[in-house]
Amino acid sequence: MKKNIFSRLYIYTMIGITSVPTFLLAQNPSSSPLKVIKLGSSANALGSSNSGVNQVSADQATGTVVFIHGNIEIKAGKKNNQLVYDYSIDKGENFPATQLNQGPIYNKNLNGTGLTHSSPLYPSAILYNPIGNTDSKNIILTGISSAQGGVTDSNPKLRTIATYSGSIGSPNNFKEQESNFNSKKAWIPLSQCQGRTGEFWSLDRRGKGDGISFDTLGIIDIYKGTLTNGIDINWVLFDSIIAPFNKSFSPNNAVLSSPRIAFSPNGQIGWISILGDFINDGTDTVATFSPIFYKSIDGGTTWSAPIIINLTTFPKIMDNLDTISTDDDGNILGVAIPFIGRETGMGVDINGNPHLLSVIFSLGRDKTGRPKKYDFAVNANKFIYDLTLDENKWKTGIYAPINFFKGIVCEGETLIQENNPHVSMSPDGTKATFTWIDTDSLLYDSSEPNGAYNSAPNLFAKSYDVIHKDATSTENITAGSYLDANVKFPAVAPIGLYNDSKYITPVVCTQVDPQNCGNTTNYLYFNIIFEEHEYHPIIDTFPPDTTNITETSNQSFSISSNYPNPFYTSTTIDVNLKNPALLNLEVTNMLGQVITSRNNNYPSGKSQLIIDASGYAPGVYFYTITIVNDRITNKMIVK
Fold first, then answer.
1. Is the C-alpha dihedral spanning 464, 466, 467, 469 positive or negative?
2. Which residue, 9, 26, 113, 136, shows the most beta carbons closer than 10 Å to its own?
3. What is the pTM of this model?
4. Nearest C-alpha neighbor of 46 from the set 117, 132, 145, 116
């Protein structure tokens, strides 16, 4: 990455600024040492406030970059919520005015006379280049988002699914559709990506159906789009996962966050990651977040049993935990238990291995000295890590210190952003570029409460060479630029670009009114560029840390996958209990409806559990085995 030519400390000193450099907001982006390009605008910043939604997409073959966002038009005296896009055909070097605010490609009000669709929320973009095509105008843009507004139902809070697809060069001919294939239980489709040729994916944490709260079972819905007729993308509810969360502290509400999905460059190997409380320490005193993974080796057709990652088994993570820092009264802030931030980024490399980028720090203590529930030690040391696989062992790869965790973006809606971690893979999957936001300690506003707030964020980046296991240094990308100390809601392309020994990561930031996020919002584009010569051997004072993969096991028991699977009338599960216990079996369908529930006492050691499905309709089901607060969920298919 080319170094910024301005010294931020010099600039601030010359003009007498000692806090957030708000003067930068009034600069012309074209004068910035980092090339920043002004894109289109939106009625507000809310649609870009979720870091899990992929709004930026790039295509290597044609050099096309697209950013999708919301817009509001007044027709016949009514607000018309719509989606538009901005695009470049030269790898983000230029975004001509004629290529901004293209569309609309999705309308709430198609003809100005009546409401035909619910309002689209949190739009996403995936580019698909038809085989052999070299013209940017023929590239297909598709996306999936939730929609809300009550057009298809009397309850305005219900969320349906909005999908759209069409050619970049024909913004007025997009196919747009509002669907109820999720039974109006959508929340926010996230992590949109492409798998195999002509196949597209997204994850959504299922809502309760009231538009207000989540489903209590902890269901993650898997949406799949398939190319039809050479241009249309047909989206469906493909599958669902019931995450095996720990019920000790929240028996009636699954505490889950940050569902992510990504595939290898050939689309064959896929990974799903979810954050949640999956580990029961046996004492009911610890409530923290850990990651869980699911793997597919057949392009997403089937997914493995859950792979639960216990962060306490990573020496580097444990050594970096802060159990020394104290508050003003001398009380120790953190405990020796890792807590993972509620936002992650994920990509899959050329070897089919995942890279999960996340901030990890100490679980906090309450006023009595006990561990907090799902909360962190505010002023404790923080690090950002790449959790990845190496020779079938989990390890922490790239890591870097973090100054601050979260900050208030604007007062009007009290929107908060955390570190916004993102992973952008090179088109061939050989390079992984990691980005996150953080505030330089020189710019920190000490008046913020508890020292917690990321009040003057810049964008940081570091890139990793998967093949040679080299890395670049950590770069403050926006220091000294138009965006210095004012990076808000960065959207990063999950797949970047390559050009003449340069690895390019497209980024779009939101220019937010700090007083009210509901006011008009502008978008700003720039490229992160790392060159081949910037990758060097990693110097790490910590020894390599790895932990073996553990599947379908918990504190008190383990089970095999059911066999046979698929099956017609019955299937068998091998169960291994550490101690005699009452075992609960619950079988649910794709809608989360309980089909079977029974309790049986089992002895310690190995036993067999048989599920009689002779009365089941053909389809996909989930079986959950629970012993006290430990549970494991797997999928079975009835023919």
1. positive
2. 136
3. 0.80
4. 145
